[in-house]
Design brief:
Blueprint lengths: L3 E8 L3 E7 L5 E7 L9 E5 L3 E3 L13 E4 L2 H15 L9 E5 L11 H8 L9 E7 L6 H14 L6 E5 L5 H7 L7 H11 L7 E7 L7 H7 L5 E7 L4 H5 L16 H8 L4 E3 L5 H5 L7 H6 L13 E2 L4 H9 L1
Parallel strand pairs: 4-7, 7-8, 8-9, 9-10, 10-11, 11-12
Antiparallel strand pairs: 1-2, 1-13, 2-3, 3-4, 5-6
Helix pairs in contact: 1-2
Length: 329
């Protein structure tokens, strides 16, 4: 397994985005991050791509500007292995929580190779803190992926060693269809699968909302579908992306203020849900390492946006710029 790293952006004390080329010549991005003030030995997060670009075109995601297909099992593992061997040559990872998120570029349920990676991971490294995380909007036609995912979780990651997250964003189905403009599971379908997926001792299934102004989150709708004993709510800001600006989307949560009180959150808590307000380091927006951001898109864009992608991209070879540009042309 090998990758050619073409460029990086970021700071190791927060997050670094890697722009690379696979053996087959595909452009790929992946990220490593920590969560200050916690040291890497306490929590280390890797965020890897599963597709080369994205075929979906979500209104807030910069990765949907092109699509070049699925990444192979080898290409996905290569991203992980590059980051691991860079810091822990022998593959012994001391992090109490070693989280691998399949959430940089691409909907993981579109790629069955992700399942092969999940099956192999427990045997690749000495990593007692390993915690894989699948974040999905549950596209239609992916039942085979989710059926097999449930089997792998039971075999390899039972008793709280796996995180499943559904990206919902709004309880208004018409607006959800506008945000994610492809066929997807209904809330009722997600509930049905989640009820079967969750077993005693598992982590609660996460319902993620990148809260957008004028995109409602109704606790009554959620309570009709999702048992607070099995599902929790994670609220995040809408990250600064070119697509969000283009489509007039504005975040309900202000990451600059980091205040704890928002009426919607209190309503959800009153309904009995565990609610996590997840506001990371604002610096990650400047690096371009947050969800929905895509540095390769930034390099192609002539007019920068405010509050995002302000870190310089450090090229690692004379051919890097041409290779990166070729990846999105």
């Amino acid at each position: 397994m090998s990758l050619k790293v073409l460029a990086t952006a970021g700071r190791e004390e927060v997050a670094v985005v890697y722009l690379a080329q696979t053996q087959g010549g595909q452009a790929v991005e992946f990220v490593e991050s920590v969560q200050p003030p916690w040291p890497r030995e306490k929590k280390w997060v890797l965020i890897v791509s599963t597709l080369c670009g994205s075929p979906v075109g979500c209104l807030m995601c910069d990765a949907g500007s092109y699509y070049r297909g699925k990444l192979s099992r080898t290409d996905i593992l290569a991203q992980i292995d590059f980051l691991v061997r860079k810091r822990y040559r022998e593959g012994s990872i001391p992090a109490k929580k070693f989280k691998i998120q399949f959430a940089r570029t691409g909907e993981p349920a579109f790629n069955l190779n992700v399942l092969e990676v999940l099956e192999e991971l427990p045997y690749c490294y000495k990593a007692p803190g390993l915690l894989p995380s699948i974040s999905t909007f549950a596209p239609a036609g992916t039942n085979k992926f989710f059926e097999r995912l449930m089997e792998i979780k039971e075999k390899e990651y039972s008793r709280g060693r796996f995180q499943l997250q559904f990206s919902i964003h709004t309880t208004n189905e018409k607006l959800r269809d506008r945000l994610i403009p492809v066929k997807k599971w209904s809330l009722a379908h997600i509930k049905e699968y989640g009820e079967e997926f969750y077993k005693t001792g598992d982590r609660k299934i996460t319902l993620n909302f990148a809260l957008i102004q004028d995109m409602p989150v109704d606790s009554r709708v959620l309570l009709r579908h999702f048992d607070p004993d099995k599902f929790l709510i994670k609220i995040t800001p809408l990250n600064p992306t070119y697509q969000a600006v283009k489509n007039g989307l504005k975040s309900y949560v202000d990451p600059q203020q980091k205040k704890e009180y928002y009426p919607v959150l209190e309503e959800l808590r009153a309904g009995g849900y565990e609610v996590i307000l997840s506001i990371g380091e604002v610096e990650e927006n400047f690096i371009g390492s947050n969800c929905g951001q895509y540095v390769t898109k930034h390099l192609k864009t002539e007019k920068p946006i405010r509050d995002g992608y302000t870190y310089p991209v450090q090229e690692h070879s004379a051919a890097s710029s041409a290779c990166i540009q070729a990846g999105i042309d």
